Amino acid sequence: xxxxxxxxxxxxxxxxxxxxxxxxxxxxxxxxxxxxxxxxxxxxxxxxxxxxxxxxxxxxxxxxxxxxxxxxxxxxxxxxxxxxxxxxxxxxxxxxxxxxxxxxxxxxxxxxxxxxxxxxxxxxxxxxxxxxxxxxxxxxxxxxxxxxxxxxxxxxxxxxxxxxxxxxxxxxxxxxxxxxxxxxxxxxxxxxxxxxxxxxxxxxxxxxxxxxxxxxxxxxxxxxxxxxxxxxxxxxxxxxxxxxxxxxxxxxxxxxxxxxxxxxxxxxxxxxxxxxxxxxxxxxxxxxxxxxxxxxxxxxxxxxxxxxxxxxxxxxxxxxxxxxxxxxxxxxxxxxxxxxxxxxxxxxxxxxxxxxxxxxxxxxxxxxxxxxxxxxxxxxxxxxxxxxxxxxxxx
Length: 395
Description:
Layout: E1 3-10, H1 15-33, E2 38-46, E3 49-57, H2 64-75, E4 78-79, E5 84-85, E6 90-97, H3 100-106, E7 122-129, H4 138-156, E8 162-174, E9 180-192, H5 198-213, E10 224-227, H6 237-240, E11 243-244, H7 249-252, H8 273-290, E12 296-303, E13 312-316, H9 325-335, H10 340-347, H11 378-387
Parallel strand pairs: 3-6, 9-10
Antiparallel strand pairs: 1-8, 2-3, 2-11, 4-5, 7-12, 8-9, 12-13
């Protein structure tokens, strides 16, 4: 073993994740009614209360309160005992129109630069590797799958005592080549009914949930487990902790394996490069790794508000590519349009596809048809390498 690395995920019933789902549900409703909507919707939740605020510009007429209640209902908060109930919670809405100063930077033909510009300055990261079939780091993939499976079991009634709030954390041991060896530690806390014993929960998680998610080949006799380590988790969700949109950004991306960048995703339309450029960076990295340009690749892009092209692009292949970084950058420039308009045109980001990403990760989602997860540029990349006579691993 060379080092240990840990990532975490949280369930759809976690208070911060509730807010992410609310923000994206509002965005999706607006895009369904008006694909040209601009949206930056933020949510806050605490005991039996949801506050919605932010800036929008849209011709859509949507019932925000109904969207909030239906989203909370789907998550599973339908009982007064949980501290928030979809049917009785207070919903406060404070949405107003987007700043005209920002709008002129993202509207074509307005502002100092006439192209569609970035909705804000900022830096974003994308990443892909060959640790998993999803081209993602193993710890975050395992953490997400634990949470997603637990939620399915809760909703199906397989474990009847489960409540919506939960979180998982997986520690993986790596060798000197940054390749995973085995799972060192699993930490999992799940909200539950008051009449179930800690011993029952621990038994079910260790003997049913974990073996259904983590391959036996990754488990050793020394793998450690911490299941509900406080001994009790009845009070949870917004009643246990307040929730905010955008507070689980590392959960949303790569589990801390690479940097995240400056901003959150949920509730933002494609002009907010915090979201769209991070999606595009993932798309670029995944296609390059799938084309065998590198076994592992990180890309950083940065933007100025109102300006269409990134102010910088940086790549790191961690010594796994035969290409020089300058050659990879030229390949990216030739193959991918990193302007907000180009990103939207290729990834079709005016679609109402965001609510499904607001829990269990935005990347590596083989259960969803997300445009930034497609590997449809692999042939173009290989053709470029062949045409430019580059000494690549690509085959």
